[in-house]
């Protein structure tokens, strides 16, 4: 048997590998948690204190995430999550004994009795949830933070909407505008350059909300195109309360797009790759630009509105 120091070094080595381990979905744990009611969106419950020593028992020694069924153990009783089991090549990362397929049913059942606060408590969620419902709730929690909507770099900042608005203004130097109408001009000296084209992002404040207007160049198959679209800084169910139009034109022609802003829960790339916006072929964009067609000069105008809720007749 290797010494404990060697085992810990082995665990540290596993942790250092840049591999993402997805926690098991809720469907995989119903054999243990089926007697626990689905309270993913339940109201507040009395808090149940779980000691740190018990929490440590439910922490995988490799990825340090909470363990969910199936939880495996070696012959010496050391436990491991199912996500990390393939990574250790069937060897216990603590004592290096063979793992096999021994389930730690006792620990799985103990976990079913716990109730824990949502991990987004600091963002405002005060709910207390059964251990096996906690993951499902957190994946849908309305208080979970948003990713930074800036598309010009891989920004890892997360936070609530007020924090991200300040972050966009102070760190990304994004233009901020008040009002529900806009008139922007996009100029590029060499429109042939589609790769690494500069992303344009402008934030609008209206109706007590914030909206992100994106404009960029990208390849649609073999054809270079420009796209403009609007994202709502909030959840999808709120985004549906708004609409917007985008208009671009020149030389007596125009193109108009009308749509619903997408929530920033959907990534910039997801919205762009679904073509959910005003798409302008490069040849058409240069035609709108006028002149000798060697410089991009596009004027994009638009409007944001709040949909009127029609009350039902009694």
TrEMBL record:
GO terms for cellular component: autophagosome; multivesicular body. Residues 60-96 form the RING-type domain. Pfam families: Sina_RING, Sina_TRAF, Sina_ZnF. It comes from the Eukaryota. Keywords: Ligase, Metal-binding, Transferase, Ubl conjugation pathway, Zinc, Zinc-finger. It catalyses: S-ubiquitinyl-[E2 ubiquitin-conjugating enzyme]-L-cysteine + [acceptor protein]-L-lysine = [E2 ubiquitin-conjugating enzyme]-L-cysteine + N(6)-ubiquitinyl-[acceptor protein]-L-lysine. It is found in: Cytoplasmic vesicle, Autophagosome; Endosome, Multivesicular body. This is RING-type E3 ubiquitin transferase. It comes from Olea europaea subsp. europaea.
């Amino acid at each position: 048997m290797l010494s404990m120091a060697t085992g810990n070094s082995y665990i540290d080595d596993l942790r250092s590998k840049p591999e993402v381990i997805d926690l098991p979905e809720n469907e995989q744990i119903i054999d243990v948690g089926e007697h626990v009611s689905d309270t993913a969106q339940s109201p507040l419950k009395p808090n149940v204190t779980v000691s740190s020593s018990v929490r440590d028992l439910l922490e995988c020694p490799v990825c340090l995430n909470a363990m969910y069924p199936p939880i495996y153990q070696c012959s010496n009783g050391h436990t491991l999550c199912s996500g990390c089991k393939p990574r250790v090549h069937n060897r216990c990362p603590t004592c290096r004994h063979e793992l096999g397929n021994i389930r730690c049913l006792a620990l799985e059942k103990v976990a079913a009795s716990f109730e824990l606060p949502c991990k987004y408590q600091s963002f405002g969620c005060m709910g207390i949830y059964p251990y096996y419902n906690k993951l499902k709730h957190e994946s849908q929690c309305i208080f979970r933070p948003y990713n930074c909507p800036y598309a010009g770099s891989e920004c890892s900042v997360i936070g609530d909407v007020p924090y991200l608005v300040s972050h966009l203004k102070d760190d990304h130097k994004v233009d901020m505008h008040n009002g529900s109408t806009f008139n922007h001009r996009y100029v590029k000296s060499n429109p042939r350059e589609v790769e690494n084209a500069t992303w344009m992002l402008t934030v609008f404040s209206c109706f007590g909300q914030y909206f992100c207007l994106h404009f960029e160049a990208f390849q649609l198959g073999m054809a270079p195109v420009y796209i403009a679209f609007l994202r709502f800084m909030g959840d999808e169910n709120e985004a549906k309360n708004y609409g917007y139009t985008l208009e671009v034109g020149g030389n007596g022609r125009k193109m108009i797009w009308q749509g619903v802003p997408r929530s920033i829960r959907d990534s910039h790339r997801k919205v762009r790759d679904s073509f959910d916006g005003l798409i302008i072929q490069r040849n058409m964009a240069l035609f709108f630009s006028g002149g000798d067609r060697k410089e991009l000069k596009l004027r994009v105008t638009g409007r944001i509105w709040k949909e009127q809720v029609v009350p039902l007749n009694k």
